[in-house]
Amino acid sequence: MFRTAFRQVATPVLRTQTVAWRRFLSDDLRSQIDKAVKDHDVLVFMKGNKEQPQCGFSRAVVQILQANGVDDFKTVNVLADEKVRSGIKEYSNWPTIPQVYVKGEFVGGCDIIMGMHQSGELQQFLENEGILPKEEGAKQ
């Protein structure tokens, strides 16, 4: 009885799915994000702000930046505007928040920043970008 029940395999039903792309990033919003990214040496799109992060990943990014000596950075609270929250993901082609930008370039999200911090690469990157002063005798 059980053998026959387990031998019967359902035949998959093939369905075509229509993929609808929704554009969240208007030209106006793109230019606003561009301006913000270019106007600040370090910019973090996050949930909350650096004084009061509203998710663990955002808090981790803030703590990592501060642990590396970066106290002067700007944050954008994506929870305040759904268009920014959706648009920044399209802008960077990165699906998660927080997102860190340094000198106008997207660096990564929490996982990337965490990995760079743990390997020591973040400190060197911030020094090379002129965010932090270079240490005496440091490799270039």
Automatic annotation (TrEMBL):
> Which residue ranges does the record assign to the Glutaredoxin domain?
42-107
Q: Which GO terms describe its cellular component?
A: mitochondrial matrix
**Metal-binding keyword on record:** yes
Which key words tag this protein in UniProt?
2Fe-2S, Iron, Iron-sulfur, Metal-binding, Redox-active center
Which GO MF term does the entry hold, naming one?
Answer: metal ion binding
Pfam families per the UniProt record, alphabetical: Glutaredoxin (PF00462)
* UniProt source species: Rhizophlyctis rosea
Q: Which gene encodes it?
A: GRX5
The record's PANTHER family line, in alphabetical order, gives:
GLUTAREDOXIN FAMILY MEMBER, GLUTAREDOXIN-RELATED PROTEIN 5, MITOCHONDRIAL
Q: What's the protein here called?
A: Monothiol glutaredoxin-5, mitochondrial
Give any single GO term for biological process. Answer: [2Fe-2S] cluster assembly
